[in-house]
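All the exercises in this workshop are built on plain-text protein records. A record pairs a protein's sequence with a compact description of its fold. Backbone structure tokens are a discrete shorthand for how the chain folds in space. Once this layout is familiar, the rest of the handout is easier to follow. As an example, a complete record with its sequence and its structure tokens follows.
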Amino acid sequence: MTSHTTLAPAGLHRGKRWTNWGRVESITPVFVARPTTVDEVVAAVIAARERGLAIKAIGASHSFTAIAAAPGVMLDLAGLEGLISADHSTGRVRLAAGTNLHQLPAILGPLGLALQNMGDIDRQTIAGATSTGTHGTGAAFGGLATQVVGLTLVTADGSILTIDEETNPELLPAARLGLGALGIIVDITLQCVASFVLDAREKPEPFDAVVDNFEARATAVDHFEFYWFPHTTTVLTKTNIRLPAEAQTRPLGGVRRWVDDSLMTNGLFAVTCTAGRAIPSAIPSINRIATRLTGDREFSDASPQVFVSQRSVRFREMEYAIPREAVPVALREIRDLIAAKRWRISFPIEVRVAAADDNWLSTAFERESGYIAIHRYFREDHREYFRAVEAIMRAHCGRPHWGKIHFREASSLREEYPRFDDFLAVRDRLDPDRAFANPYLDRVLGP
């Protein structure tokens, strides 16, 4: 679509340059809208359509891809946030789409509720996190989108579409994780669980011992993940066991949490990334020191306090889902690749798991999945490393995280998603003129 005018109508403002958190993508939209009501969202969609402009919603801009980039009208949903309603009998809560994950403990806690599972970053909005396939770890638990039982969309003609188990239920598998391609989500209903405590154990362990027994380790406990710093023989394992809300807690003290998370994990890591960029040959030694200085602690606390980690060092990330049983082979292939290329990689590789689900564009669709995430410091060139690892992931039937860097196109993605064309049929039904398209969606879904 092309612009017919640059005069800002009511509710739209002249666009300013937008950049995502990872400093990978940037764009200057023609207009920006900041709605605080659903009616204002509808008005923005209609205004964009009248001017021949596509419209895209943004959340916290935490995706590393250009999935939220809006050349036409950028719809900032930050003003559309908070609890709309809660049903104590079912544990279901309805949230405005722009509500950030970090707001949820204060919203859900007084209700005695919690998210069933979370990732380790909580800066995203609930609509952005579910729409891109954000997930945590746990062999019995799906990604955030599996917790969605209903949502409300503003569609391309400005109408309101309810999708839940009773109204348009056939659309739920597409709309829960819809990449922003089906409409503007204005609210989401989540199935929550009773509040619970997590017992956390973090410790360094030998690479080979953990990788050799990966499936057993991942399925033996509620939540398991590990980090491997390239050029070392050690991984940092994180094991979380769910306990009732009334269980006695042993939270980290304020000083210990600051030392571990702010000073060591972020402060020291920022220094090591900067030093590694200046002197790449020092990275293996730096990584070995990092594995000795981090981890090795036990504590228990309310689930959000354990699931979430603070991340202040800026980076770029690619993550792939592969069959869970393929993780050990793939991880060793990445290790061998790094050694063969003589790369110096300062950022750790993260390994997690998730249960199979039935969301059509979920990376765990109908497959027990393991996740391998690679990272690079944002001031380093990530492209050669990411492309080479992507080739390994593709050889293992990998599916890329929609919100993290990858180089795939619709033709190859169709091969990995059995319901890919079913999703496209829903898109054709709800947005035949591509009012919610952008170059990223054109690439991964087709025009």
Confidence is low (pLDDT under 50) at residues 1-5. The first strand starts at residue 13 and ends at 14. The chain has three domains: 13-78, 79-194, 197-400.
